[in-house]
Amino acid sequence: MGKAILIVDDSASVRQVVSIALKGAGYDVIEGCDGKDALTKLNGQKIHLIISDVNMPNMDGITFVKEVKKLPNYKFTPIIMLTTESQEGKKQEGQAAGAKAWVVKPFQPAQMLTAVAKLILP
């Protein structure tokens, strides 16, 4: 059983790219199509890291991060924000909510894996 990573993005193609890179590196991948959907996946199973988009329908990434931090089981799960937003304001909002890293799209899978390896819980 590899380490589980939850990837949250409303774009199926982005989820696919991230998923292929992570699975190739030996991680297990759980997918959510937006913040609301992703919260249903946080049902007590062990998740070592979350990668979330910022701009999504139903529940955006920043709200999602705030919701995750309210859950005792996932309060300390590291979160990487994945986004086309490189604005400082958004970045600060994400960090204030509890995101640990920020990866701007388009990204190189190798860059993503480096961020993951640095943050993933043992």
Features:
122 residues, alpha/beta, Rossmann fold
Sheet with most strands: strand arrangement:
2-1-3-4-5
- CATH first level: Alpha Beta
Number of helical regions: 5
Low-confidence runs: none
Q: Which term fits the overall shape? A: globular
CATH architecture: 3-Layer(aba) Sandwich
- What fraction strand? 15-25%
Helix-strand sequence: EHEHEHEHEH
| Major sheet | 5 strands, parallel
Helical residue percent band: 40-55%
Quick check: average pLDDT? 93
The CATH homologous superfamily is named: Response regulator
Cα end-to-end separation: 13 Å
Give the strand tally: 5
Rg over alpha carbons: 13 Å
Tally of discrete structural domains: 1
Structure class: alpha/beta
The gist of it:
The protein has 122 residues and is α/β, with parallel strands linked by helices. It has helices spanning 12-24, 35-41, 61-69, 88-97, 109-119; strands at 4-8, 28-32, 49-53, 79-83, 101-104. It has one domain (4-119): 3-Layer(aba) Sandwich (Rossmann fold).
Task: Note down, in words, how this protein is organized.
This protein has helices spanning 12-24, 35-41, 61-69, 88-97, 109-119; strands at residues 4-8, 28-32, 49-53, 79-83, 101-104. It starts with a strand and ends with a helix. Helix 1 (12-24) links the parallel strand 1 and strand 2 (28-32). With 122 residues, it is α/β, with parallel strands linked by helices. 41% of the residues lie in helices and 20% in strands. A 5-stranded parallel β-sheet has the order 2-1-3-4-5, sandwiched between helices. It has a single domain (4-119), classed as Response regulator (Rossmann fold, 3-Layer(aba) Sandwich).
